Task: structure prediction
Amino acid sequence: MNRTGTDVVCADINEKGAGETAAEVNGKGSQALALKVDVTRRNEVNDMAERAIAAFGAVQFLFNSAGSAIRRAKFLDIDDALLQQTFALNVYGTFYAMQAVLPHMLANKHGVIVNMASMQHRRGGPGSSVHYAASKGAVVTMTMGVAREFATAGIRALSISPGPVRTGFQAASQSSPELVKQFIADVPMRRFGEPEEIGELVLFLCSDACEFMTADTVYANGGSGWR
Result:
C-alpha cells in the first residue's frame, strides 16, 4: 500500500504516459485508472469525471496540471492561434474539470481542488510568454473565485505557482538554452524544482493539515521570480 492509500485517475492526452503512471500506482497497492483525455474538449472532461465516479464511487480531490506555453513568442508575434491554444489548454481545461467535478463534490459536501498556476502570473512573461502568463493569471483568479464561492459548502480550492521545474515543459514550449540558463540564474537555490517536490506540495494541500487554507496561490520557487 502506498502511504496515502489513495486511488487515482490518471488522465492525460499522452495515453502511454497515463498508463505508465497508473501501473506504478497499482504496483504500490492502490488502484489507478488510466484515461486518454484532451482537456480542451468539454465532452472528454465530463466523461472522465463520470468514469472516475463510476470506478471509485467518489472524487475527493482534483489536481489540474495540464498546461503549456505552446511555444515562446515576443508579444507582437503572438497571433490568434497561439493565444487561443494557450487559453484553451491552461484556462478552459481547468475550467471544464472544475465544472465537471464540483456538482459531485457539493453533493458530498467535501472536495479539494488544486490548480497549477505559475510564478509568471506575477511577472507577466515579458519577451517570451505574455500569453502564458496571462493564462496562468486567469487560473489564479478563477481558483480564488471558486474557493470563495463554495467556501461554506465543504470545498477548498488552491493554486500552486511554481518556479522552473524539471519536466518536459521547457522542451515543449521551445525554451532556448539561453532562456533556461536565465531561469536558473534567477533561482537563489541555483536549480530547477523536481516534480516530486510539487507532488508533495499537492498532497499537503489536499490533507487535513490544510483545512483552513483556501482561495490562495502557494509559491514553490526556490526563492525565485520576485524581480
Remarks:
- The chain has a mean pLDDT of 94.
- The longest strand covers residues 155-162.
- Residues 106 and 133 are 31 Å apart (CA to CA).
